[in-house]
User: Fold this.
Amino acid sequence: MDLEAENARLQALVAALEREKEALLLGYEEARARADEERARAEEHRARAEAAEAAAKRLQVELDLLRRKLIGPSSERVIDPNQLALPIDPKSGTTVTAANDAAAGDDNNEAVTIKRKKRKTNRRNIEDMNHLRTVVHHDEHNPFCPCGCSAPGEVIGQEVSWRLERIPAEIIRHKNVRDRFAFPEHRDAMGTAGTIWTAPPPMSYALPGAICGDGLLVQVAIDKYCDHLPLYRQAQRFEREGLDLSRQTLCDWMMSFGELLRPIVKSMAREVLGGDWLRADATGMPVLDESRVKGKAHHGHLWAWGNYDIVVFTYTADKKADTVLSLFPEFEGVVLIDGATDFNLLEKSDGVTRAGCWAHARRKLYEALPYDAILATRGLAAIRELFVAERVVMGAPIEERLALRDELCRPILAGIRKWVDEELPRAIPRTPMHAALQYVDNQWERLCVFLEHAAIACHNNDTERDLRRPVKGKANYNFAGSPRGADVAAVFYSLIGTCLLQAI
Assistant:
């Protein structure tokens, strides 16, 4: 009896222990599930925090970039050139810059002398300017010592000094008087007696029906389209000089003058399109277009394109692919442009090769400096070496450039290619550094086109310099008053830009 009771008690105890074990296992599983849930939640919070931190850093970089564009220096110069050392040898993949080789005492290195091509200039030497002469004599009626001792003196020489002075411009009325002749005994074919003949004018004017002479007309055009002085300010200046010329009058002059000059620009365009290469870029041009939204400026576009001797500006209302194609009808050759998608359809045209711009690739790396200074600096150093080599190349005769590029530029590009291949997979997506590396990778074939074409440079900085004039002008006059006004502005920018290229 006692054994049965003890057995029952032990069985009850085992059952209780089993239930307790199951409860403990259940509690353990619940605790582990809660721990896994907390761990997953912690990982999620950590991922969110990292994403937020990356987004904050990216936004800070964008803010710094916008602030620098708004109030910072426009130059993209890297301050300390000693830090621009790219540890990539273009041939072996190990170190080097010419400065490091020279410091190591490598006798095989030869100094490279860069012969800078002198820019054309129309500046006159001061010594060649016209001058007025003023001579100050001693008092002829009292040629004695100025101290009052009455001792006579004699001229032993002269002291000459120079001073620049400006003679204010003067607006005059040019009166042309032409004789009129009567021929009373003249008989025409109908037998009518008499005729009157007036002497021809002494000169022909650009705008015969206007009150302005050619000199005044050209001055108004230069002041607006070269020196960026809006017409309303010119009207105010004329008013200060006592001449009442309204802004509308000046505008009418420019419209008529621009139409008169348009055939010259068309001839320039034909010459550029007849070549085997051209460079191009665009900038925005606000235009008041009543056919669109009344009272609101339409965002048009001003295109600059040409070669190194001619630049042509063209206004278009949009940047559609068909519009871009219409700018270069039947052109075959190399087009030097940036990575904008506006030219993608042009690139697919028969006979057109698209060349990329290393200055734009450099700008991407410069914008990544605040995000990853070390990596961006390495890329900037390599591009700097490329630009130094290109100065040597572009200073040489055109028939020698391809051989020089094979010798100087190809090894540098090989080093850059290797560097991009190594760093791009490690770069964090959606960061300025990743965008810079991705740009170089995507544009690589275009960026290497200059190696096969001696006439073009490795960058499109010349076109960007040409665009500075309309950009500065736009900052003063804000917008064009009509599509026709923007089109006429393109005519003047073309002529003035080409004259500056030719040092005229």
